[in-house]
Structure to design on (399 residues):
């Protein structure tokens, strides 16, 4: 058998020219590729067009109102303080724009699309802020009807709340008629403030006093501050800054005296003069009446028939009896009644009015007497008394 042929491996780099020649050709291809890429980049840069645009923001107000402290924000960054606001070189795309100015409502951010190589306009019309008001609250001390005016304009009676006042200084005036001294106040209000005043109390300037004198005391001497009054009823305007005194005198009665003071809640007062018998005077008067002979009936001493007692139904088996008045009345005599009440009131005896209390020495027929005291405000008080002939009975009540 013959031996297989032997494979001979060529030696590496045995021929330097054969090894280097292919490497030099590859470098030329790489250099050509890089040049092509650079050229393509240059062509893309020059032919793709610009990548930014311009934005013009205009801010106006209704009625050409001046804009102060204007601020234009783009993407949250302040860019201008005046209008129009020209912004160049903005990156193409969406931007958030906002305009603010003093005295105007805040605006929300608005999205604006900036196109490459173009000018874009965005307009804002601002709305003026509504002026913020102030509130004033006031009340009166006591029950006096107090009226208020603000800057000379009537606003009504206290209490009240004024919630639409402009900020600033205002002149207030409180008054309640001729009997009171008007009060002036100056207040300064700020926007949104609520000012509550202390309760207003007006000083009384003059008071009105009415004085009545009942007919049974017509002979009394009545004085006001030591000056005698002659006509009744009397109505007098008095200085309310000082107290006043009413005095009255009538023979057979205790002297009357009363002090009068006016306050804001009592600018008008009414007084009725009344007298009461003193203990010694009343005793002497009663004794004199009992000892004196019975006078003939007159307008001052009226003989009154007894008030009939209400009939009471009787069973049919009983016999009718004499009227109750006949059982208690002594037909041959008269008695005396002394009547009084606190306060003074109109009095009726047996259904007939005999004047106002105190009513002393009233001559009546002996027997049962039905007495009613009537007061216009406090109502009625009733009493029954048996007056024997020649005797004196006294009835006094308190309402």
């Amino acid at each position: 058998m013959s031996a297989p042929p032997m494979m001979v491996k060529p030696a590496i780099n045995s021929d330097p020219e054969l090894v280097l020649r292919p490497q030099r050709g590859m470098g030329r291809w790489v250099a050509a590729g890089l040049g092509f890429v650079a050229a393509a980049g240059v062509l893309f840069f020059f032919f793709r067009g610009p990548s930014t645009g311009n934005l013009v923001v205009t801010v106006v107000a209704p009625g050409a109102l001046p804009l102060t402290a204007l601020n234009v924000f783009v993407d949250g960054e302040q860019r201008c303080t005046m209008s129009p606001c020209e912004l160049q070189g903005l990156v193409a795309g969406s931007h958030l724009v906002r305009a603010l100015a003093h005295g105007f409502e805040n605006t929300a951010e608005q999205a604006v699309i900036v196109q490459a190589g173009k000018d874009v306009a965005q307009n804002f019309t601002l709305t003026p802020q509504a002026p913020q008001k102030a509130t004033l609250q006031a009340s009166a001390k006591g029950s006096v009807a107090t009226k208020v005016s603000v800057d000379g304009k009537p606003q009504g009676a206290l209490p009240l709340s004024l919630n639409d006042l402009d900020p600033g200084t205002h002149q207030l005036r409180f008054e309640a008629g001729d009997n009171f001294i008007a009060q002036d106040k100056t207040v300064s209000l700020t926007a949104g403030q609520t000012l509550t005043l202390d309760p207003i109390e007006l000083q009384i300037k003059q008071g009105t006093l009415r004085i009545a004198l009942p007919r049974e005391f017509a002979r009394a001497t009545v004085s006001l501050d030591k000056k005698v009054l002659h006509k009744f009823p009397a109505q007098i305007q008095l200085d309310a800054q000082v107290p006043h005194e009413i005095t009255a005198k009538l023979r057979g009665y205790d002297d009357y005296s009363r002090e009068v003071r006016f306050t804001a809640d009592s600018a008008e007062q009414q007084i009725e003069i009344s007298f009461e018998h003193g203990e010694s005077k009343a005793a002497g008067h009663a004794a004199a009446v009992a000892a004196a002979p019975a006078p003939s009936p007159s307008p001052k001493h009226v003989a009154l028939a007894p008030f009939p007692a209400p009939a009471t139904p009787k069973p049919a088996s009983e016999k009718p009896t004499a009227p109750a008045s006949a059982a208690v009345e002594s037909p041959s005599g008269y008695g005396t009644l002394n009547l009084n009440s606190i306060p003074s009131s109109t009095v009726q005896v047996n259904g007939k009015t005999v004047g106002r209390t105190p009513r002393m020495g009233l001559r009546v027929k002996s027997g049962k007497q039905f007495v009613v005291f009537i007061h216009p405000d406090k109502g009625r008080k009733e009493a029954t008394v048996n007056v024997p002939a020649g005797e004196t009975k006294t009835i006094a009540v308190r309402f």
